[in-house]
Amino acid sequence: MSDLDTWPFWAPSQEASVEAALDLAGVGDGTRVCDLGCGDGQVLLAAARRGAAVSGIEADPDLVDEARAHLEDAGIDADIRLGDLFDPDLVLDADVFFAYLAPATLQRLLPTLQHHRSSHLVTVDFGVPGLVPTRRCDPARLYRMPGRSRPVGAPGWPTAGTLVATDPDCQSLSCLDLVHVGGAAGAHLSDEFAGLASIVSGADHLDGPAHLAVDLRWEPMDEGDVVAGAVHVDGMPDHALVVVITEEDHGMWELSPGAIRGIHDALVQSAPPSTLAELLDATAT
Ligand SMILES: C[S@@+](CC[C@H](N)C(=O)[O-])C[C@H]1O[C@@H](n2cnc3c(N)ncnc32)[C@H](O)[C@@H]1O
């Protein structure tokens, strides 16, 4: 499944991250700040408390209502629009764009933002694939548009595969990246993941070799579930993908070809692995 329409996910950024980002971008009295995907409006509240003029765009109508109510309750005049960041008719105007968005979404937004020469983009947690930040203060990164490109290495995935351990109870995000060879760059998951995950790449097409973000969104699943399959990206070799659902030790582990073979061998045994520890043991055999 590859479906941009079902991709937006909601998670508020941490208060400390927001303040770090606003500091990094020098937000103060009179700065025009636009939150791209403004959620419940908490970033706009923080920026407005510094005297900024704030606006936001949000695809989820309930969150738009919440954001408007939060700002109204605080007596702040804000322009909060219900809309899609990828709407070609959308007009954006700000000194500082704030984004707490997944890497593939950031990569897809970049061509639009690059037109805003001299504006700044400040991101939290995730960086813009293929761009070098002008300044960085973790977890915030600041980019002056149109942005400076990161050198591109040899095309390929950094590893043969990835093992993901994620939460049973809520949607979660795993972000992969690769250097794409250029040309068609759509991404798809193998059938094993149907209904369990969706995937978005940072571009449908690339003019030449370039960094490409590939984001996976996991749906809630049962503790102990293990699913093995592959990520297909146009023009590239398949990337093996194994997910284990667990309440502990969330993260991503790189898999060598030998580790992938070990996991596949273990999964056809009479007592297949159902925990992260058992899967990691299988990578070592
Ligand atoms: C991770 S949340 C961040 C919310 C807020 N900016 C914050 O930092 O607390 C991302 C938000 O972007 C919104 N979003 C994602 N894709 C969008 C799109 N294409 N158009 C508009 N909003 C989008 C989601 O609905 C979600 O509310």
Describe this structure in words.
- The strands form five sheets. The protein has a seven-stranded mixed sheet with strand order 3-2-1-4-5-8-7, with helices on one face.
- The radius of gyration is 20 Å and the shape is globular.
- The protein is of the alpha/beta class.
- It has six helices and 19 strands.
- The chain folds into two domains: 146 residues, Vaccinia Virus protein VP39 (Rossmann fold, 3-Layer(aba) Sandwich), CATH 3.40.50.150; 123 residues, Sandwich (Immunoglobulin-like), CATH 2.60.40.
- The mean pLDDT is 94.
- Helices cover 21% and strands 32% of the residues.
Helix share bin: 10-25%
Helix count, DSSP H or I runs of 4 or more residues: 6
Q: What does the overall shape look like?
A: globular
Query: Distance N terminus to C terminus?
Result: 33 Å
Strand order of the largest sheet: 3-2-1-4-5-8-7
Radius of gyration: 20 Å
Short description:
With 285 residues, the protein is α/β, with parallel strands linked by helices.
